[in-house]
Amino acid sequence: MEGRCVGRQKPNLFLIGAMKSGTTYLRKLLNAHPDIFMCEPNEPSYFVDPQQLKTIWVEMWERGYWRHENHYLELFGSANGATILGEASTNYTKYPLASGVPEKILEFNPNARFIYILRDPIERTLSHYWHMVRYHAECRPVVEALKRDIQYLAVSHYAMQAAPFLECFGPDRIAILTYESLVCDPAGVTRGLYEWLGLGVEEVDMLGSTQPEHVTPEVVAAARLGGIPRWLRQSPPFRSILRHIPQPIEMALRRVTTQDMHRRGVDVTDAIEFLRPIQLRQTEELTRLLGREFPEWTTLYGQARRPRRAQEA
After folding, report:
1. Does the domain at residues 13-213+268-290 carry the CATH identifier 2.20.25.90?
2. pTM score > 0.70 for this model?
3. Which residues pair with 221 in a beta bridge?
């Protein structure tokens, strides 16, 4: 990040994750309040080290918000007098893939507030896996991927992700809620966040009708084993070439290199049994950190022990 911009209002609310836990849904609910402005696009990831961002998400790295503070602050230029300026970047809670984020935000705006939405860590991890299958050419069997790629377990290690923010800003500036509570009572949870932000609790029509977004479809176009490697598919030269390929040829190339995968046909029982002991320990750590428990995480606590197939979201 280079350069400083004087005179522009800085964002003071950060929706920091966790990935695949309803952040896009919550962002829309927050944005319904007339005094809250949530910037477009989602995930600007300004406070992620550029080299780390290039590894995590090259497409956002190419947008270059990290290059200059003015470029980033332009995202909030149409706030029209809103008192809460916010952004949602789940990359902020992907330590160690993204490091030093809380410290950078503290220097940028020491009065910032944060919302961290959590989800049953087993369900979140499995949803993360399917996201990577769909968008990033993950082609390993689910258990192998979970064992070999640090991101799946790290993002669900909520205590590890939350602790640096709590240390930098204190608990009063960080609202922590769960995806399960949000989908159970979106209006009540959102109004509670309005009050926490010091805003009036207006009646907002869309609170009861807005639905979660970015739900993974039942049939996913998955990369074939031996197909185009992930690192090549994500490389700027390859994607630049794709943009200039006629659509019929591009579609034929996709058919050759991908296959439809029905998620409900993939047995994830072994993955759950691998994750449960690890994530039970991590959740105990989270409970000690926050002083609260998470009974709504029924998959984690084994209340659904029947053999399972991949589920929604």
Report:
1. no
2. yes
3. 260
Q: Cβ(242)–Cβ(115) under 8 Å? A: no
Give me the phi and psi of 165, to 5 degrees please: -70, -40
Distance between the two ends of the chain, CA-based, in angstroms?
34
Q: Rg of the Cα trace of the chain? A: 20
Interacting residues of 135 by C-beta distance below 8 A, sequence separation 6+: none
How is residue 237 written in tokens? 């030269």
* 38 burial type by CB count under 10 A (0-12 exposed, 13-18 middle, 19+ buried): buried
The neighbouring-strand residues paired with 267 are 309
Tens digit of each residue's pLDDT (9 = 90 or more) over 44-91:
999 999 999 999 999 999 999 999 999 999 999 999 889 999 999 999
Going from the C-alpha of 29 to that of each of 26, 33, 93, 187, 313, the distances in angstroms are 5, 8, 21, 8, 18
Whether the predicted pLDDT of 37 surpasses 60: yes
Identify which of 112, 164, 156, 137 has the alpha carbon closest to the alpha carbon of residue 261. 137
